[in-house]
Structure formats: structure tokens, C-alpha cells
Amino acid sequence: MPLWNGAVELLREAIFAYAQVSHGNLAMGIIGVTFLARMAMLPLTLRVSRAAAAHQEAMRRVQPELDAARARFRHDPRRAAQETRRILAREGLSMVPAGGCVGALLQAPVLLALFSAVRQASAAGGSFLWIRDISMPNLVLAGIVTALTTASMSVGVQSPGPSKGLLAALPAILTMIALSKMAAGIGLYWGVSSAIGIGQGLLVRRLQGRP
Asked: How far apart are CA 55 and CA 125, in angstroms?
């Protein structure tokens, strides 16, 4: 696909260009371009996050009523589903917020193109801080990025109930496993994204008056 290849090539060249103004440090190129790309998407990301948080709060508000309806019709799944739909329709809610899905779909091509560009650029190698070669996995970096990812999840939209712990632990486990096998350059991209996610989550909390 010419358009896709052109987008990936543009981002890859931007990484190398930024590296040149950073004394040839390719890792700085990855960090710089990732930061700029994520900041460019921040208004849309904030809008999606705020919509998701508002939907989560509304769902939390009607959850007792939903639980009561499901308990009342526990022997009649069809009636329970109808009652659930009635309550959600009354509140103008859906199980999955459409705005969040659309926002995620709009961001996905950019993030995938950036990931592809970072992966290609990382193959060129180079050192960064304690990392001898960013084309190879680095377990210390993987651990740091895992911590950032966990923190980013913890300040994001919270899910009530016993699933909260699982939702916090699962991304951390998957991140550690993935980054232990990926180039450190990808870890830098992932870490910058997670750090921005922490700031974004804290900002959404502040805008909503949550602690």
C-alpha cells in the first residue's frame, strides 16, 4: 500500500533526522519523534479518555439497578437482557461507548505506522545510556517500561469490582513478556507512550475532580 508505506517511511526519516540533530543518537530520534507524535494526538486522546471516563461513571451509577434486574430475572436470561437494554436506553448508555471506539480507530493507524517506523529504525542499532545496542532486548528497560505501563493503567479509567486487579496486572505481565523479546528501541517508544499516558490520566482525573 503506497500510502501506508509512505507514512512509515516519513516517520522513519523523521527519526533519523531528529537523531542527526541529537549528535547522531538514534535513541534520541525515537524518543523525540514518539513524543511529538503522541503530543500531536493528545487533544483527540484526551477527548476519548474523558468520554470513556464519563461512560464508566454513568455505568457505575446504574450498576446497582442492573445487578438487581439480573438477580430478579436470573432464571430468564432473555428477560434479563431486555431489562438491561431498557435501563441502558433510559440513561442513553450503551455497553461500549461509540465515541471511544471511533477515537481508537482514528489513532490506530498513526500508532501502528509509528511502531513500524521505530522497529525499522531500531534495527540500525546504537547505544543509549546503559543500553549498548537498541536493536537488542534490554531487561532493565523492559522492567522500567513495565512499571510505567502499570502506572499508566492505574491512573486511567478505573473498573469497579474484582476485575480491577486483573486489569492492572495483565498489561504489566504482557508488557514484560513482549519487551523482553523486542528491541530496546521499541521499549523506548513504549516507555515514552506510557509516560504520556500517565500525564494524560492524571489530567483527566483533575478535569473530572477525581482524586
From this structure: 44
**DSSP SS3 for 131:** strand
- The owner of cell 476485575 is 163
Provide the strand spans (E) within the chain: none
Tell me 143's DSSP state: H
CA dist 196 and 148 (Å) reads: 10
> Nearest to residue 197, comparing CAs of 45, 32, 40?
45
Structure confidence at residue 144 (pLDDT):
93
**Opening angle at CA 14, ends 11 and 15, nearest 5:** 90
Higher pLDDT, 178 or 211: 178
Is the pTM higher than 0.70?
Answer: yes
Q: Cα(136)–Cα(125) distance, rounded to whole angstroms? A: 8
- Residue extents of the structural domains in the chain: 2-207
* DSSP one-letter string for 27-75: HHHHHHHHHHHHHHTHHHHHHHHHHHHHHHHHHHHHHHHHHHHHHHTTT
Which residues neighbour 39 within 8 Å (Cβ) at sequence distance 6 or greater? 196
What phi and psi values does residue 173 have, to the nearest 5 degrees?
Answer: -65, -45
Mind listing the pLDDT tens digit for each residue in 98-137? Answer: 555 666 677 788 889 999 999 999 988 888 989 999 999 9
- Predicted confidence at residue 173, as pLDDT, reads 84
